[in-house]
Specification:
Layout lengths: L2 H9 L15 E6 L3 E6 L9 E8 L6 H8 L14 E9 L2 E8 L6 H10 L2 E7 L3 H14 L7 E5 L1 H10 L5 H29 L3 E4 L8 H26 L1
Parallel strand pairs: 3-5, 3-6, 6-7, 7-8
Antiparallel strand pairs: 1-2, 4-5
Organism: Apiospora kogelbergensis
GO biological process, one term: signal transduction
GO molecular function, one term: GTP binding
Length: 246
């Protein structure tokens, strides 16, 4: 954990010497709808004022970062193709005292300085890969090894919308046999990219999920799982820090 993250812990009201921050003693509950409850270990439940977690969406251009943010904010599915995002910022209250400050970064290389600044300021990272395009996985590997500079994703998301969008765009131009061949091609590609993305998640120690952004109703689960991972990593750091203090 870097000095920026430590400073943000102090800003949240977390004292590195507090025994109350022992992850084994604290649990807070996040409710999603009426039928889902996620228990997340951490100190954030002890804070009784609003806190903001800077959550950065990273990934290649066109992988669905903006679509993911739009669904979280309650918007309609985005029509494809849509114009490239330079950089977007949104706020979303995920819990009574918990606000996500979402930064939707550009995938284009021409905006790398903006993306690097956003990564530097980020607390939580959602890395998105389009399962229909191997190049987006290769881009994700580059982000983790170079641009994120030691910061790790808190979740890797495989977007399953790419195949449906590509097939739909060509549907009227193809006969039945050609459509079936195209669907098979994308299915094989999805499996290959998914295996690589899952392996990257294992190497970086974060969850991996697959979501169809245009149809999925509970994309907030993506952010909840990312926060789970952020909390777990912070608690491991605080436990080590506390052992050193003792």
């Amino acid at each position: 954990m870097d000095s920026h993250s430590i400073d943000r812990l102090h800003n949240w009201g977390v004292d590195q010497n507090q025994s109350a921050c022992d992850a084994s003693n604290l649990v807070y509950s996040t409710h999603v709808g009426a039928d889902r409850k996620t228990d997340v270990p951490g100190c954030l439940n002890e804070v009784k004022r609003d806190i903001s977690i800077v959550t950065v969406l990273v990934g290649d251009g066109g992988v669905g970062k903006t679509a993911l943010a739009a669904r979280l904010l309650g918007g309609e599915p985005l029509s494809y193709p849509h114009g490239p995002t330079i950089q977007g910022s949104y706020k979303h209250r995920l819990k009574e005292h918990l606000i996500l400050e979402i930064t939707d970064t550009a995938g284009a290389d021409g905006y790398s300085s903006l993306r690097e600044d956003a990564i530097q300021e980020g607390d939580c990272f959602v890395l998105v890969v389009d399962l229909s395009r191997l190049s987006t996985y290769e881009y994700a590997e580059m982000l983790v090894s170079r641009e994120m500079r030691g910061k790790l994703p808190n979740i890797i998301v495989g977007n399953m919308s790419g195949k449906a969008s590509a097939v739909a765009a060509l549907n009227k131009k193809l006969n039945r046999k050609e459509r079936l061949l195209l669907q098979h091609k994308y299915t094989v590609a999805e499996k290959k990219v998914a295996e690589k993305a899952r392996a990257l998640a294992e190497r970086t120690g974060c969850p991996y999920v697959e979501v169809h952004f245009n149809h999925e109703e509970k994309v907030d689960d993506v952010f909840l799982r990312a926060l789970d991972d952020l909390e777990n990593k912070q608690m491991r750091f605080l436990r080590l820090l506390r052992l050193r203090v003792i």
